[in-house]
Amino acid sequence: MKSGRINRRRFVATTALTGVGLTAANYARAAGANEKIGVGFIGCGGRSGAHIHMVKKLIEAGEPLEIVALCDVYKPRANKKADGTSARIYLDHRDLLADPAVDVVCIATPDHHHAQQAIDAMRAGKDVYCEKPISHWRQFELTKELVRVARETKRVFQAGTQGLGDPVWRQAEQLVREGAIGQPVHAQCGYFRTGDWGERGMPIDDPNAKPGPDLLWEKFLGDSPKRPFDVSRFFRWRMYEDYAGGPVTDLFPHTLTPVVKVLGVKFPSVVVATGGIFRYPEREIPDTFNMLMDYPEKLTIAVLGTQANDYGVPDVFRGWDAALYFEGQNIVLQPVREANKEKRVIPTERQMAREGSAETFENHWRDFLRCVRTRETPQGNIELAYHVQTALQMGMLSLRHGKAVKFDAKKEEIVI
Ligand SMILES: NC(=O)c1ccc[n+]([C@@H]2O[C@H](COP(=O)([O-])OP(=O)(O)OC[C@H]3O[C@@H](n4cnc5c(N)ncnc54)[C@H](O)[C@@H]3O)[C@@H](O)[C@H]2O)c1
């Protein structure tokens, strides 16, 4: 057992007893640069496969990490992912969180579990890499609690919007901050793809699966409406609104997060959404979704998308003086006609992948691990994720209620 792990365990135990939150300085001592970090995975399906693969790659590259625990309400999946590791297996995430060998958790469960499991993890003293969306679209109060707990416990929280690992966003953010486009007034982005393979195409491991000691249906349901067991709901949860939201919460976190970061905005003042089930009638959630968001800074962000056609819209940031867009590896600054200035083309290391490439995914993990050690704030931090998630939840509520949804910034409340 590494001394770092022992130090940290003692420290967590002490803080749990005294009720005092972990402080940045203390934790930094406990998780020094060379001490092994024990990683636990909550949810052992498709996405966690990519995370486990990444962690193994980082271990091979010399990162002091160890996969120590895996949790899934469907034991065969946890068993499969445990292959080649000496990880302990749990069916209830709270048991994994009680495992002192777990220093950080990676949460890749269905959307409706993210916030509660992240809260439980941070309260147990663990740092969290949490898949997007950080909560389900009906969980705004829980989202606020998640933010409160992250602030109080000072745990590192990295949302799974790995495209942020693309260095082009930092460059664009810097240019906008320096005034390269003048006062930002309008931005557009989108997520277009063909096929609902992300929903209807999810694998059904066992069509005869039934609740029992190796399949905890009640734990799968969590705080969602109580329903009798259903194989499709269990394995293809993305098709159902109890557990998912469609493009707005599944895909738009990728597209909107960097845009919000570049513009430096927080909560929108009003959101209007349109869309619906235009192409794939077997699902409950929309396949086509469009959002217009106005921000108090007097700027609009438009996010467009459908799963019926993958011909996309380019990301564009428009200011009073110039537009910023991307052309191949370059950032282009196109002045408004009246400015009478030259177009500027700025080379970048742009990865050109909406959800990020293998490199941006690795960057995102490395950023998380660096922050676990230094107690700095990661790029996909909770405040950014909160602002984005609030806008996305407002979008979903706007579509469902068929009206514009406002945000009361003073009370931090969504007003329908
Ligand atoms: N960042 C990305 O690019 C990206 C890509 C794919 C998925 N995701 C996100 O990852 C999450 C998981 O997606 P997926 O495709 O892996 O789904 P999945 O169904 O393949 O995996 C989810 C796993 O969680 C398990 N589970 C359900 N309830 C649980 C609970 N209460 N405790 C523990 N385990 C539980 C399920 O049995 C299943 O094995 C989603 O929220 C999705 O949005 C992100």
Walk me through the topology.
Blueprint: H1 3-18, H2 24-30, E1 37-42, H3 46-60, E2 65-71, H4 75-82, E3 88-90, H5 93-97, E4 104-107, H6 111-123, E5 127-130, H7 140-153, E6 157-159, H8 167-177, E7 184-192, H9 217-221, H10 231-235, H11 247-250, H12 252-263, E8 270-276, E9 288-295, E10 299-306, E11 316-319, E12 322-327, E13 330-335, E14 344-347, H13 358-374, H14 382-401, E15 405-408, E16 413-415
Parallel strand pairs: 1-2, 1-4, 2-3, 4-5, 5-6, 7-10
Antiparallel strand pairs: 7-11, 8-9, 8-15, 9-10, 11-12, 12-13, 13-14, 15-16
Helix pairs in contact: 6-7, 7-14, 8-12, 12-14
How would you describe the oligomerization state of the chains in this entry?
Answer: single chain
Low-confidence stretches: 1-30
Helix content: 25-40%
Q: Give a quick account of the main beta sheet: strands, pairing sense, barrel closure.
A: 10 strands, mixed
Residue-averaged pLDDT, rounded?
A: 92
CATH T-level topology of the largest domain: Dihydrodipicolinate Reductase, domain 2
CATH architecture of the largest domain, by name, is: 2-Layer Sandwich
Give me the CATH superfamily of the largest domain: Dihydrodipicolinate Reductase, domain 2
Number of helices: 14
Q: What is the general shape? A: globular
- Tally of domains: 2
Written as H for each helix and E for each strand, in order along the chain, the element string is: HHEHEHEHEHEHEHEHHHHEEEEEEEHHEE
Rg is 22 Å
Kindly name the structural category.
alpha/beta
User: Could you tell me the number of beta strands?
Assistant: 16
Q: Work out the strand percent.
A: 15-25%
The set of bound ligands, ions and cofactors reads: nicotinamide-adenine-dinucleotide
Distance between the ends: 53 Å
